[in-house]
Amino acid sequence: MAKSAPQPRRFPALLRQRAASFGHAFRGVAAALRTEVHLQLHAVATVAVLGLGWYFGLERWEWALVALAVGLVWSLELVNTAIEAVVNLVSPEYHPLAGRAKDVAAGAVLAGAIAALVVGLLLFGPRVWALVAE
Ligand SMILES: Nc1ncnc2c1ncn2[C@@H]1O[C@H](COP(=O)(O)OP(=O)(O)OP(=O)(O)O)[C@@H](O)[C@H]1O
């Protein structure tokens, strides 16, 4: 008997699947936020930067830079957390490669954080300086 051709999935099913994927992603962020002190510090820094941006009335392009900088640091910290979890899973004992993987992942976060710091200094430095010098 001839097999019937696979049916295209219906729109509601696709939508449900996408919603589930978003759910997994949010669950990942929430789990990382609960366990990672660095991410909690990023959350505090993010709120502070948003407050400063509102206080100084940043221009649209400046908000775009802030969004990119904040997104970069959060993304790298989340990837670092994922790499740490996988390394702990596959190499709970000491191994030079496990150590290197963690060090390099931490280095990626450091590089992103330095870039974000430069953006923050360029955007807020002169404004804060003007306030202090008044
Ligand atoms: N299995 C391992 N084998 C070899 N070295 C390791 C191993 N696990 C950790 N290390 C070394 O210890 C360092 C700290 O690892 P750890 O897992 O404590 O992460 P962390 O830097 O404390 O991260 P966080 O504070 O974000 O959880 C690593 O960067 C690495 O140099």
UniProtKB/TrEMBL annotation:
Residues bound to ATP: E36, E84, E93, Y94, H95, K102, D103
Keywords: ATP-binding, Cell membrane, Kinase, Lipid biosynthesis, Lipid metabolism, Magnesium, Membrane, Metal-binding, Nucleotide-binding, Phospholipid biosynthesis, Phospholipid metabolism, Transferase, Transmembrane, Transmembrane helix
Entry-linked InterPro entries: DAGK, DAGK_sf, UDPK
Entry annotated with the keyword Cell cycle: no
Binding site for substrate: E77
A cellular component term, taken from the record's GO annotations: plasma membrane
Membrane-traversing stretches: 37-57, 63-83, 104-124
Protein name from the UniProt record: Diacylglycerol kinase family protein
